[in-house]
Amino acid sequence: MDVSNDSEPKWPSSQEPAIQKLFGSNSQIFQTSEFKQDRRLHGDRIIKDKANTHYQAGMEAVDQLEFERAVTCFTKAITLQQEQTQFFGARAEAYLQLCDFKSAALDYKHVCYLEPQNKAPFHRLAFIYYLQGQSYCDQGMFFEALESFAKAVELKPGFRPYHMRSLACLTALSRYSDALRLVTNWLESDSPSADLFTLRARLRHQLNQTMLCYYDLKAALRLNPSCPEARALLEIMEQGAECSHQQAVTKAVEGKLSDALGKITTALELNPENAQYYLFRGILYRRLKDFTAAIEDLMLAVEFSDDGAKHPERENPEESKALEQDVHIQLVLAYNDFAVHCFTQGFYSEATMLLTKAIHEQRDESGLFINRGDCFFRQKEWLFALADYQQAEELDPQNPSIWFRLAVIHNTLGLHSYENLNFQEAADKFSVAIKYNPGAAQYYGNRAKALSRMQCMEQAKQDAVCALVLHPVNDELVPLLLRLFPGCSLSDVISSDTAQTVKVQLMDRIQTWKRAGFPVSRLSKKLERMVLRHDTDSQSETDSESASSREHVEVRFKPVEYTQDPVRSKEEVSEVVKKLLHHRLPLSYTGPRVAPLCIKHNLKPTACTSKRPYSWRNFGGMGLNC
């Protein structure tokens, strides 16, 4: 055998393209005929054998815990054969034993590049990133650790410990929002657990999202009622809520309603399912005239109080029932006060709707029907107003304000009948008005006019005299008296036997009415106005409610105030009549009586006649003279 031929090298197949590119057709000079004929010796086999020798040496070094020498051996093997993933993996493990995580990660990255279909190198690389991140955590380098854990999660997304280490780094960096987003993704993608809900609750507690924290704790306890972490945090929140509630009570007693509102809002954020807190805040909103917010809170209080009633084991059933009653009362008050506000602004339809809701909640309160009747009256819905007043009378037959309203509404209906020339119907309506309020001079005057049109002169005269006795200075009675008592002066009329008899009967009727419990009053020239009642003791009521743990308030409705003077007693009326008789012009005066003379103040005629001329519409009920 020719030795020279045996020593002739063979170029590796991987180098042939490079040689071909460099030398072109002249590359054949590197392959002699002897080389082509002798195939016993191959260079690639020699390199492979040498690489295996280095690899075995490296493995022996690993067994002897000489990792630095092992790295050197594996590096030599890799230099000879760069396509062997086994060599890269072995060196990466040696680097890992030396805690050189970056070098180990680079080697496993190369393995993943060479074998992308093999998942084992990817998982091993993820573990290396995990170890690297843990090393950063031990050194307090949380940002670098977070990057390493994030790489591990990317390579092995289904492995929860990597996620947890990322979460730990986020919390260490105070990036609670990112941590919360991460936990929320877990809850949405995986099956929820009490631990995850508790973890998210803690994160939300750090972000001051107390209400959401509360609901997460509730969810955790539903999944695991014995979860100690969730129960402990929930107790802390409930204690904080009660502390804020007591502070709100103190502020409310001091009259600082806005401060009390802030405190009770804090309590509700800590414990958003407490009906007592919603009731208290609803009362504060009502006192501050934020009626929409008050109604919303009271509706929530109704909902949560109903839930408490369905679960009597949670609290005292008696307290729950009492709380539910208080909530319904406050809800009715809120509807009523909101209606009062709308009424004062002229929104009568809205006020009517709110009062209808209040009546739906509590049908045995006469004040609600009175208020709604007032709204119907302003909308000129006379029959609906009458129906509400009658319903109020059934509920509270001894209420003077209801009687006054019934008198006014019947007088109004009588005026409409009179305008439609239905004199008998008008007289009947005026009679009902007099029944409810016998001290109103206007009702007698209206009935006298209706009776005179019906040619019932005697009855008309009696009513005219009653009107004169009750209101001696009423100029509008003069034309009626001229027709009923022709040729007689006022002194003649007031001193006649008929007048004296009528006066005695009238006073007896009024005294009987007074003994029945109804305060006698006289309608002034300006007719009574219809206004809704305001709860004047609202502030004191707030203080009393705030001072107690449960704010019980009774429904109180202030009666409608009429612009009418009290009816004079019999003696006062007599004195006034005597004075007027001495200064009254005789009825035989033939001059004009359009307006009184103004000689005393030297006023111009236009100023004296500025008083509103007489008109039948002025005898209408409340609101017609406006």
Q: What is the topology, as strand order, of the major beta sheet?
A: 1-2
So what's the overall shape? rod-shaped
Mean pLDDT: 76
Number of helices: 31
Oligomer: single chain
Structural class: mainly alpha
Largest sheet: 2 strands, antiparallel
Question: Beta fraction of the residues?
Answer: under 5%
Stretches where pLDDT falls below 50 for ≥5 residues?
A: 1-11, 37-41, 518-570, 587-626
What proportion of the residues is helical, as a percent range? Answer: 55-70%
At a glance:
By secondary structure, the protein is mainly alpha-helical. The protein has 31 helices and two strands.
Can you characterise this structure?
This protein has helices at residues 3-6, 16-23, 33-37, 43-63, 67-80, 85-97, 101-114, 119-138, 142-155, 160-172, 176-189, 194-206, 210-223, 228-253, 257-270, 275-287, 291-310, 317-344, 348-361, 366-378, 382-395, 400-419, 423-436, 441-453, 457-470, 477-484, 490-495, 497-515, 538-547, 570-583, 605-608, and strands spanning 521-522, 565-566. It has a two-stranded antiparallel ribbon. The protein is built from 31 helices and 2 strands. It has 626 residues and is mostly helical. α14 runs antiparallel to α15 (257-270).
Write the layout of secondary structure elements.
Elements lengths: L2 H4 L9 H8 L9 H5 L5 H21 L3 H14 L4 H13 L3 H14 L4 H20 L3 H14 L4 H13 L3 H14 L4 H13 L3 H14 L4 H26 L3 H14 L4 H13 L3 H20 L6 H28 L3 H14 L4 H13 L3 H14 L4 H20 L3 H14 L4 H13 L3 H14 L6 H8 L5 H6 L1 H19 L5 E2 L15 H10 L17 E2 L3 H14 L21 H4 L18
Helix pairs in contact: 4-5, 5-6, 6-7, 7-8, 8-9, 9-10, 10-11, 11-12, 12-13, 13-14, 14-15, 14-29, 15-16, 16-17, 16-18, 16-29, 17-18, 18-19, 19-20, 20-21, 21-22, 22-23, 23-24, 24-25, 25-26, 25-28
